[in-house]
Amino acid sequence: MSSSAQLSIAIVETDRERALLIEQSLRDAGEFTIHLVSDITGLARRIQALNPDVVLIDLESPSRDTLEELALASGPMERPVAMFVDRSGDGLTDAAIEAGVSAYVVDGLKPQRVKPVLDAAIARFRMFQRMRTELAETKRALEERKVIDRAKGMLMKARGVGEDEAYALLRKAAMDQGKRVADVAQALVTAAGLLG
Amino acid sequence: MKTTTLSVGFIPLTDSAPLILAQEMGYAAEEGIALDLKRAPSWSSLRDMLSFGRVDAAHMLSPLPVAAALGLGGAGVALSAVSVLSVNGNVIGVSNALAEKLRAQGHDFGFEDARAAGAALIAASDETLRIGVPFPFSMHAELLYYWLSALGLSVPDALQVRTVPPPLMADAIEAGEIDAFCVGEPWGSMAVENGVGALLLPGTAIWSFAPEKVLAVRSDWAETEQSLLGRLIRATWRAGRWLAEPDSRSLASEILSRPDYLGVPAEVLDRALTGRMVISAQGEERQVPRMLEFHSGAATFPWRSQAEWIGRQLAARAGLDPDAAARAARATFRSDLHRAALAGTSADLPGASSKLEGSLSTRMPVASESGKLFLGPDRFFDGRIFEPRET
């Protein structure tokens, strides 16, 4: 573990594309030695062998728990390899958790040396988070569209009305009940399913 | 009463039931709180979510607040265990290959004798046994170390304990990364269900009253939010009492099986709740008393002596001063807050906050507020008795 040489950083990420994006943002932030770890079997031992100053891992990754083994040194009285990021109270850890990244930093590393790494990682993970939210939102909208179309189809058939009128019926029911059109449509589809 | 929303983190396990049912069955609402339940991807992230205030309270492995107090992992934020959410509930399972070998050696998979099962397991492994546990600081790890070292295995050297998140345990055994596991339900039963392993022993055969999960909060939050904390403790205590009723179990399984909670078939969840365990793909059944306990025998009471036992075990492995560790550990199990929250309810709590661990082999009446409290058996399989040394 070096004190003046470049910081070495291990990025644990199974998705190659994401790993490269994280690596790129770190390279833009400074000169670091970067290891990409994409295979998570035997993760703790891999990290132990690399002996990095900082480990970055997606907060959502269940493999993160494996890294906790490193908090217990391999033998009694040995110094743990890595400890959870800074106890310096500058709010960086909190920001990291909010952005969805956990960072393990070797004990005793000066906060100012870690800050650029974390700032870059946090910015990158915030972007991932936005992409994830957008994707989920798009998916949801598509699903809702499908349900509304099915409900419209049912109304058209059952009441012998046109598409616009069917939609107007749904919208009116939604307004009357203080609900969203998609919810009313879902209720109709579910009820119809139950009635057979 | 104005409803206050508390965010509460949980890991998808059958023993998260008291939190989920407190919300679903209206026990939270009765106390004027609503629980915003957040499923966490891993124990370390749940601990950090709690430490940094992303959640107000969490379902947590009983050794985790103790480990944090000893500086083992975590962000240095003090955590308090204010209730025990569940006692027992773990199972030890083996790969199909190892199960076959055990049977060939004549082991009967009786599912109750820890000494016989452990000796058979040690005899059947030619190489270093690789065992998966969900987290380094967990009752699973403690039970394994206690069990196998009492049977003469030199731990941790003669054992490779690997961390595998519970929902991935079945995959790990199928992929041949581990030979055996100790995991909370329903993930042991899921390994059986997927045909990748067999169950060897319930955790309760090693320690018949092991505090498994606790309700954890930040220690400073416990001081500043005493009213909310009391309501949360009462709501989960009532949910635990409801869960202990035989009639509640099928509804509980149905609710827990929902995709937002565990996303596992109700039939599989039912096994730990009823203690009717299916131990092999051939459908062999074993009835396990106290497989998973939510209520009886003052199960929710956080005994200082339980914390001390955990603290001393952790200290011995991590090379820490045992007496200092015991003191720090005891301070994390808040029997005082638990008692204060349940004062004035029908809960019958013990008069003492510490007890001998492992001394009861049958139900035993003890001094309590109403004088009607019985503690259940709490024996270790090897008959050792742990005497807390704190003065």
UniProtKB/TrEMBL annotation, chain A:
Pfam families: ANTAR
Matches recorded under SMART domains: ANTAR
Coiled-coil annotated residue ranges, if any: none
Domain of life: Bacteria
Keywords, ordered alphabetically: Phosphoprotein
Domain ANTAR: 128-189
Domain Response regulatory: start-end pairs: 8-122
InterPro entries: ANTAR (IPR005561), CheY-like_superfamily (IPR011006), Sig_transdc_resp-reg_antiterm (IPR008327), Sig_transdc_resp-reg_receiver (IPR001789), WH-like_DNA-bd_sf (IPR036388)
Xref: SUPFAM superfamilies: CheY-like (SSF52172)
Modified residues (4-aspartylphosphate): D58
Name the UniProt record assigns to this protein: ANTAR domain-containing protein
Organism the protein comes from: Salipiger mangrovisoli
Lineage of the organism: Bacteria, Pseudomonadati, Pseudomonadota, Alphaproteobacteria, Rhodobacterales
From TrEMBL, chain B:
Transmembrane segments: none
Pfam families: NMT1_2
Subcellular location(s) per record: Endomembrane system
Entries under InterPro entries matching the protein: NrtA/CpmA_ABC-bd_dom (IPR044527)
Keywords for this protein: Cell inner membrane, Cell membrane, Membrane, Transport
SUPFAM superfamilies cross-referenced by the UniProt entry: Periplasmic binding protein-like II
Keyword Cell inner membrane: yes
CDD domains to which the protein is assigned, alphabetical: PBP2_NrtA_CpmA_like
Keyword Cell membrane found: yes
Principal location listed in the UniProt entry: membrane
PANTHER family: ALIPHATIC SULFONATES-BINDING PROTEIN-RELATED (PTHR30024), BLL4572 PROTEIN (PTHR30024:SF43)
Protein name as annotated: ABC transporter substrate-binding protein
Protein species of origin: Salipiger mangrovisoli
